[in-house]
């Protein structure tokens, strides 16, 4: 059973506003890559967030953080995972536009990980995430791990498509 | 015994997936794998006592890991092997046999997870699995066909 929110308040509005804002920015940008790559990378971004969150909720490490109102899965939790898809697209869009090379890639990943951590802090203020034993610097490390992975997959899929063409 | 069997099956599935001739495009592989893992993770979470009392996960870290491996690695890889096989097999009888085989293996993996005590059923009715795995197979097939359709529309030859 998946629950509805207890109260429709600040955190629900924060999720809706963040999702719509990033989605509108993503839709207004001129398209740079094929729809199939966008769909694959969107699924990858949203699913990675879900799988990470799911993997962390276990008997080894307990009560790291809560998402939204309840310590249960609610419908808005699912929107918080989908909410990672448009920023994932914007991250790849920025990479494609600036095409960093060599050490520039390190600087790019550092800047985007810092930006993502900053956004997560804002979402924490909006009570989307309630950190318990979790610290924001852990999120920074997670972004430093996930973002290069996302980039590597994106570059591989793009090169594969070109090779096929 | 159950844990060792599950880990051995996982390794065999991964090796099988690495060595088979791939008929799936890498984008189909990534999309099906991640979408299935995320949906299964959510479905499992929704069934645990936090949300409902259908089944209970083990508090033992190694058994907990087995349960996570089942949802995130083994079931998605099995589904990918099935989809790959469906693209390779031409005959209708072969396709039916592959579908029945995959369905039986999914039920078997679930039974093995329960036997290893990675999770135990509470209010879960065992017959629900018959519907659950059919839906999961349909979902994986629909995602793969959807991505293939998109790729074809973009002029990618598969």
From TrEMBL, chain A:
Protein name (record): Rod shape-determining protein MreD
Q: Keywords for this entry? A: Membrane, Transmembrane, Transmembrane helix
Q: Organism, per UniProt?
A: Tumebacillus lacus
Q: Does the keyword Transmembrane helix apply?
A: yes
Its transmembrane ranges are 13-30, 37-58, 78-95, 102-123, 138-157
| Superkingdom, taxonomy of origin | Bacteria
Automatic annotation (TrEMBL), chain B:
For whether the record's keyword set contains Transmembrane helix, the answer is yes
Q: What are the protein's UniProt keywords?
A: Membrane, Transmembrane, Transmembrane helix
Locate the transmembrane regions by residue number.
Answer: 69-89, 96-115, 127-143
Q: What is this protein called?
A: Uncharacterized protein
Organism equals Tumebacillus lacus
